[in-house]
C-alpha cells in the first residue's frame, strides 16, 4: 500500500466500498431470488393443488354423469354418454397435466394414482363404448358396478389427500418465502446501515492515517523549513503517493533554502572580504604612492645632483683643458725663448727673467690645474657615491615591485577563490602585476643606465687622476726649471748647456701638456656622456612616476 499513490488508494477504497455494496446487493438479490423460488414453488404447489382439485372434481363429475337412473329415456342416456365422453377427455387432460407437473417425490409417494385414474378413464370409456355399440342398458349396468365406484372413491380420496399435501406444502413454502424475504430485508437494511457507517469509519481512518496526519506533519516540516537555514528531515519521503512527492518537494525546498542561505552567507562574506580587500588595496595604494613618491623624489634629487655635478665636471674639465692648452703654449713659448737665449747671450738676463716668470706662471697654472683635478676627482667620487645611493634606491624599488608582484599573485589566488565576486579584483590584481613588472623593468633600465654612468665616472676619475699626475709632473718640471734658472743665473759660462736642458725639459713638458690635453678631451667626452645618461635617467624617472600615478589611480578606481 505504501507504494500506491493517494489517488490509487482512494480509488481502491471506493472500489472496496463498491465491491462490498455489490456483494451486499448480490446477497440481497440471492435472498430475493431464493424467496422468489420459494414463492414459485408455493405457487406451483398451489397450482398443483388446484390441478388435483380440478382432477378430483372432474372425476366426480364424470362419476356423477355415469350414474343415470334406469327410468331415463334412451335419448337422455345417449346425451349422458356424450357428456361422459367429453368429461372423460377433460379428466384425461387434467390427469396428464397433474401427473406431468407433480414432483418426483409426490409421484413416488402416490405410485398408484396414475394407474387408478387411467383405470377410471378406461372404465368410463368402456361405459361409453358399451352404450354406443351394444345398448344403453348394458352401459347402465356397467356404470353401476361396485368396483368402479370404489375406484372413484379411492381416486377422489387420493387426489384430495394430494391436494391437501400440496396446499400444506404451499403454505409452508409461503411461510419460508416470507421468512426469507424478511431475512433478506433485514440483511439489506443492515447492509444499508452498516456499509455507509463502516465505509465512513474506514474513510475516516484512511483520511486520518493516509492524508490528514501526513499533511499535518508536512505542514510542520514546511514551517520548520521556512524558519530554519539548515536541511531538515521530512517524514513520509519514502511513500510513492502524492504525499511522498510533496514530502520530497518539501525536502528539496529545504535543501534549496539551505543552499540559498549558505550562498547568501558566502556572498556576504565575499562582500566583506571584497571590502577588506578594497580597503587593503587602498592602503597599499596609499603606501605605494607615498613610498614610490618618496623614492622617486629621492631618485630625482639624486639624478639632479648627478646631472649638475656632471655639468660642473664638464665645465671644470673644459677649464682644465683650456688651462692645459695655455700651459702648453707657455711651455712652447718657454722653449722658443730658451732657444732664442742660446743665440742671444747678451739678452740672457732679460730672457732668464722672462723664463723664470713664465715658469712660475706655468707652475701656478699647474698648481691650479692640480687643484681643479683634485676637485674634479672629489666631484667624480661624490657622483659615484650618489650613483651607489641611486642603486640602493632602485634596489628598494625592485623590492617594492617584487612585493607588489607577490601581492598581485595573492590577490589573483583570492580572486580565483571568490569566483564571480572576485572578477574585478582579479582585473585589478592583473593591473598590479603588470605595473609591478613595468616598475621592475624600469628599475632594471635605471640600474643599467647607472652602471653606464658609473663606468663613465670611473673612466673620468682615472682620467682626472692621470691629469693630476701629469699636472704634478708639469709642476715639478716647472719647479726644476725655476731652480735650474735660479742656479744658473750666474753661470753664464754654461748657458748653452743650461738652455739645451731647458729646451729638453720644455719639450718634455710640452709632450706632457699634449697628453694632458688628450686626456682632457676624453674626460670631456665621458662627462658629456654622463650628463646625457643623467638626462635620460631623469626622463626614465619621470616616466616611472607617471606610470606609478596611473597605477595608483586605477587601483583606487577598482
From TrEMBL:
It comes from the Bacteria. Residues 288-538 form the Methyl-accepting transducer domain. The chain crosses the membrane at residues 189-207. Residues 209-262 form the HAMP domain. PROSITE patterns: CHEMOTAXIS_TRANSDUC_2 (PS50111), HAMP (PS50885). The keyword Membrane applies. GO terms for cellular component: membrane. InterPro entries: HAMP_dom, MCPsignal_dom. PANTHER family: LYSOZYME-LIKE PROTEIN-RELATED, METHYL-ACCEPTING CHEMOTAXIS PROTEIN MCPB. This is Methyl-accepting chemotaxis protein. It comes from Bosea sp. NBC_00436.
Amino acid at each position: 500500500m505504501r507504494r500506491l499513490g493517494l489517488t490509487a488508494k482512494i480509488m481502491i477504497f471506493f472500489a472496496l466500498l463498491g465491491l462490498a455494496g455489490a456483494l451486499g446487493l448480490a446477497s440481497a438479490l440471492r435472498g430475493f431470488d431464493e424467496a422468489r423460488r420459494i414463492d414459485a414453488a408455493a405457487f406451483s404447489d398451489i397450482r398443483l393443488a388446484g390441478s388435483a382439485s380440478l382432477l378430483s372434481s372432474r372425476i366426480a363429475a364424470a362419476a356423477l354423469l355415469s350414474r343415470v337412473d334406469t327410468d331415463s329415456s334412451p335419448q337422455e342416456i345417449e346425451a349422458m354418454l356424450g357428456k361422459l365422453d367429453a368429461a372423460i377427455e377433460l379428466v384425461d387432460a387434467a390427469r396428464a397435466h397433474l401427473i406431468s407437473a407433480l414432483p418426483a417425490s409426490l409421484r413416488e409417494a402416490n405410485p398408484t394414482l396414475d394407474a387408478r385414474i387411467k383405470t377410471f378413464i378406461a372404465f368410463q370409456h368402456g361405459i361409453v363404448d358399451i352404450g354406443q355399440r351394444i345398448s344403453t342398458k348394458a352401459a347402465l349396468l356397467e356404470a353401476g358396478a361396485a368396483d368402479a365406484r370404489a375406484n372413484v372413491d379411492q381416486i377422489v380420496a387420493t387426489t384430495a389427500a394430494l391436494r391437501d399435501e400440496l396446499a400444506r406444502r404451499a403454505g409452508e413454502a409461503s411461510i419460508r418465502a416470507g421468512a426469507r424475504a424478511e431475512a433478506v430485508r433485514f440483511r439489506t437494511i443492515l447492509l444499508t446501515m452498516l456499509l455507509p457507517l463502516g465505509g465512513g469509519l474506514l474513510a475516516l481512518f484512511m483520511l486520518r492515517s493516509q492524508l490528514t496526519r501526513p499533511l499535518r506533519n508536512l505542514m510542520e516540516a514546511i514551517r520548520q523549513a521556512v524558519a530554519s537555514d539548515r536541511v531538515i528531515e521530512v517524514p513520509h519521503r519514502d511513500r510513492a503517493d502524492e504525499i511522498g512527492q510533496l514530502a520530497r518537494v518539501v525536502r528539496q525546498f529545504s535543501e534549496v533554502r539551505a543552499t540559498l542561505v549558505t550562498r547568501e552567507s558566502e556572498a556576504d562574506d565575499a562582500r566583506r572580504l571584497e571590502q577588506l580587500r578594497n580597503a587593503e588595496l587602498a592602503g597599499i595604494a596609499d603606501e605605494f604612492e607615498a613610498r614610490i613618491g618618496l623614492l622617486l623624489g629621492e631618485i630625482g634629487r639624486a639624478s639632479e645632483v648627478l646631472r649638475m655635478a656632471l655639468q660642473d665636471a664638464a665645465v671644470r674639465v673644459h677649464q682644465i683643458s683650456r688651462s692645459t692648452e695655455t700651459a702648453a703654449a707657455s711651455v712652447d713659448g718657454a722653449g722658443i725663448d730658451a732657444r732664442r737665449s742660446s743665440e742671444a747671450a747678451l739678452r740672457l738676463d732679460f730672457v732668464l727673467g722672462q723664463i723664470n716668470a713664465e715658469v712660475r706662471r706655468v707652475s701656478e697654472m699647474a698648481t691650479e690645474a692640480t687643484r681643479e683635478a683634485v676637485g674634479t676627482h672629489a666631484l667624480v667620487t661624490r657622483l659615484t657615491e650618489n650613483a651607489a645611493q641611486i642603486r640602493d634606491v632602485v634596489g628598494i624599488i625592485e623590492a617594492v615591485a617584487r612585493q607588489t608582484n607577490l601581492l598581485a599573485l595573492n590577490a589573483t589566488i583570492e580572486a580565483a577563490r571568490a569566483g564571480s565576486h572576485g572578477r574585478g579584483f582579479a582585473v585589478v590584481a592583473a593591473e598590479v602585476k603588470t605595473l609591478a613588472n613595468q616598475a621592475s623593468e624600469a628599475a632594471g633600465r635605471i640600474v643599467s643606465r647607472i652602471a653606464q654612468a658609473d663606468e663613465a665616472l670611473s673612466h673620468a676619475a682615472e682620467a682626472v687622476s692621470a691629469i693630476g699626475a701629469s699636472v704634478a709632473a708639469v709642476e715639478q718640471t716647472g719647479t726644476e726649471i725655476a731652480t735650474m734658472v735660479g742656479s744658473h743665473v750666474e753661470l753664464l759660462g754654461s748657458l748653452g748647456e743650461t738652455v739645451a736642458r731647458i729646451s729638453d725639459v720644455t719639450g718634455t713638458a710640452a709632450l706632457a701638456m699634449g697628453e694632458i690635453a688628450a686626456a682632457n678631451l676624453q674626460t670631456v667626452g665621458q662627462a658629456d656622456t654622463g650628463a646625457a645618461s643623467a638626462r635620460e635617467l631623469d626622463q626614465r624617472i619621470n616616466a616611472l612616476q607617471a606610470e606609478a600615478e596611473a597605477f595608483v589611480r586605477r587601483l583606487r578606481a577598482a
